[in-house]
Amino acid sequence: MDAMILTMYIIVLVYFLLGFIAFYFINQKKEPHESRKSWIKTITYFFIINIVFFSIAINPLVFRYLAVIIIIAGFIELFKLFRESGYKLKLLFTLSIIVLTIFSFGFFIYSGFEKGLILFAFMILSIFDSFSQITGEIFGRKKLFPKISPQKTVEGLIGGTIVAIMSALLLRSLIPAPPLKAMLLAAGVVFLAFIGDFFKSYYKRKYNVKDFSNLIPENGGFLDRFDSLIAGGAFIGILGLSIHL
């Protein structure tokens, strides 16, 4: 592992340490069964982050194979809810397939880019996901979309966005890029990640389910766990493709 990748991994560990400390105090106020579910989700997410990080750091080709698995699993989960509903809401299902196809196309392109750019976007997305939840649970008061995603708050979105965009200054050596460009790139990744998360939540709400599947403990399935990565990665992939065209 080269020095830059080691530095990036140390940054990942520091962020997770801060997250673990925050969740420790957050979970102290929860009921035991809710606290247990939260810890399972957090620890599972930590292992997922490590798997994806090292698949990129050691050999990006491994991440490309992982991206294909994520894409296929996402389509399977969409179809699974459609089938279990008795094939209801056909228009919603069709539109969702179109949206996921566009995002998956961009995500697949992103998975073939150079290591530094893949890691930059992945780490921004991971920080955004983690700190949206942390700041939302600590400071959250105003619900963002109460009828679609009742757990998400305006404060959580703002907190996660600020931490992620500011973190671009720590991670910009991966690209490399001047500070403003790195922050703008991070902002684009975060925005698309938010859009992807919204579409996922809307689809689940319309089909009246909490999770896409139980394949990933307490994380709601592949689309629940990787929706932000697919959409945020798609931003990088489509942006990069448009620049080269």
Describe the structure.
It is built from eight helices and two strands. 79% of the residues lie in helices and 3% in strands. It has helices spanning 3-28, 32-58, 60-84, 90-110, 115-139, 154-171, 179-206, 222-244; strands at 143-145, 149-153. α1 (3-28) runs parallel beside α5 and α5 packs across α7. A hairpin with a 3-residue loop joins β1 (143-145) and β2 (149-153). By secondary structure, it is mainly alpha-helical. It is globular, with a radius of gyration of 17 Å. The protein starts with a helix and ends with a helix. The protein has a two-stranded antiparallel ribbon with strand order 1-2. The longest helix has 28 residues, at 179-206.
Keywords:
single chain; 245 residues; 79% helix; 3% strand; two-stranded antiparallel sheet; 8 helices; mainly alpha
Shape field: globular
Q: How many β-strand stretches?
A: 2
% residues in beta strands: under 5%
Task: Estimate percent helicity.
Answer: over 70%
Largest sheet: 2 strands, antiparallel
How many structural domains? 1
Distance between the termini: 33 Å
Itemize the secondary structure elements and their pairings:
Blueprint: H1 3-28, H2 32-58, H3 60-84, H4 90-110, H5 115-139, E1 143-145, E2 149-153, H6 154-171, H7 179-206, H8 222-244
Helix pairs in contact: 1-2, 1-5, 2-3, 2-5, 3-4, 3-8, 4-8, 5-6, 5-7, 5-8, 6-7, 7-8
